[in-house]
Amino acid sequence: MSDPHLSRLPVVKAPDGIWNSIEASLRSPAPESPRRLRWQPWMWLPATVLLLAIGFWSWNRVHRTRWEVVRTTGSQPARTETIGAGDWLQTDAHSRAEMQIGTIGKVEIEPGTRLRIVATKQNDNRLSLEHGEIAATISAPPKLFFVETKSATAVDLGCEYKMKVDDAGNGLLRVTRGWVSFDWQGRESLVPAGANCRTRAGAGPGTPFFEDAPSALTTALDDFDFSGHSETALRAILAASRSRDTLTLWHLLSRVPAPLRPLIYDRMVSFAPPPAGVTREKVLSLDPLTLKMWKDELAWTW
Amino acid sequence: MDMVIRSLATTLLALTIPLASAQSLSLTIGNPVAAGQTPMVKSLQFVFRVNGCADLSKAKVAATAEGIVGNARRTIPLDPRAVPTQSGVYGIPDQWGTDGTWVVAITADCLGATAGAIVQMNARTFVRDGTQFFSRAPSPAEIETALKAYASPVSVPR
Predict the structure, then answer these.
(1) Running DSSP on this structure, what letter comes out for residue A47?
(2) CA A189, CA A154: separation in Å to the nearest integer?
(3) Is residue B45 in some structural domain?
(4) Which of B26, B33, B46 to mutate to probe the A interface, most A CBs <10 Å?
(5) Do B41 and A296 touch (CB under 8 A)?
(6) What whole-number distance in Å separates Cα of residue B86 and Cα of residue B82?
(7) In this structure, how many other beta carbons lie within 10 angstroms of the beta carbon of residue B35?
(8) Which chain A residue lies closest to B45 (C-alpha atoms)?
(9) Beta strands of A142-294 (E only): which ranges?
């Protein structure tokens, strides 16, 4: 009692009623307090999903970037701009452009080209080439860079290539380094460095062939791919083929009717015996593992 | 007697098998695409495969680029890169530039056996028809002969 005013106050006994009411309240059960929300183990699941969704959204937003484009027209100074998904890029007869594909490579755009940027994501960098010519140099793991045309999609498998198409979607792919997969509606042509592959509207990618292949082979291949898969054309291809043209013959195995497959197989083994594990029976039945094993071995001669 | 003959035969077989496999050591040279669909393919001039090595973990490979630039003779030790997707396959990156005339000398050793090759190079890749294979390391004289033949005006056009 340090306060002098308090020390002067008289001490009064509490009325009995107060004590009675305190005792009564102690005897009666405590009122139900609202239940506290306890952390349950199952709650981790929605929390984790929520956090992941937020993380993915943020990551995707950050990585959906714009690409830098440098345009040049004749002797005029270069002009730099950025371009993003949904944008179109067009060069006229006198201009060209160079576009950086994020950090994975670049695309040179030749005069008279029109293309659209479809996606600029970390795991999906995609162009749609309407017409014209591009040269792509990509340094990235496979299947991160795609160029769509009306008749085929070029899937980068670690490569450098040039591609040219007209308005209808007819064109040519020329690979200078690495591999490109040229796809359309489940049909795939694997094109290694030094090889070309044509594509036609309505037919998709043709059969790849080496740039130095005999003209008799490439002419017959054009007939075979885009004029009805005739046996005459196939026989002309086989007759003109060299050891290195097993690239073409390997693709043809799965593109001819079953009765014609032995013709191709026999021509292929005339250049070099198949490796252990690759049997005639399995090849003719188009066993996927066997065909891959043979292609991997043949690639040493390409 | 049978026992003795059987033991001798077993010993002979045990000695012959490693010898036979060692004798079959060889190299295959290929375009980088033979290494499969891996980004490292792009940076390689060519790839080579060591065949007939019973234990590839014991294989040792070495390579040098041997060239003539101007009038100067050059030797550059190379660092063959193991291709991660295929065991026993190595890539040779371009470590010598585009000037001059070059061959690449390769030696592979495995469990006491040796194989070698001299690979002729052009500006972009190897010349398949200009590749020589050996069942030993290529000698300095063979390298000089190959290089001089390649550098001479009557050799394969570049």
Answers:
(1) H
(2) 10
(3) yes
(4) B33
(5) no
(6) 8
(7) 27
(8) A177
(9) 145-148, 153-165, 171-184, 187-192, 195-200, 204-205, 209-210
CATH number for the domain harbouring residue B111: 2.60.40
Verdict on whether the full-model pTM lies above 0.80? no
Q: Report chain A residues whose CB lies below 8 A from the CB of B38.
A: 142, 158
Element (H, E) at A69: strand A67-73
**For residue range A184-225, what is the model confidence (pLDDT) as tens digits?**
998 899 999 999 999 999 999 999 999 999 999 999 999 999
Whether ipTM > 0.90 holds is no
Q: Which amino acid is at A41?
A: P
Residue B140 is part of which domain span?
25-151
Kindly state whether residue B62 falls inside one of the protein's structural domains. yes
Q: Name the residue facing B34 among A160, A177, A300 (closest C-beta).
A: A300
Tell me if A177 and B31 make a contact (CB, 8 A cut-off).
Answer: no
Residues written for chain B: 158
Considering only A15-24, A78-87, A229-238, which range has the smallest mean pLDDT?
A: A15-24
Closest CA in chain A for residue B128: A301
d(CA A97, CA A127): 14
Q: Which residues pair with B133 in a beta bridge?
A: B117
Quote the longest CA-to-CA distance of chain B.
71
Domain count for chain B, please give it.
Answer: 1
Contact between A139 and B39 using a beta-carbon 8 Å cutoff:
yes
* A154-173 pLDDT, tens digit each: 999 878 999 999 999 999 99
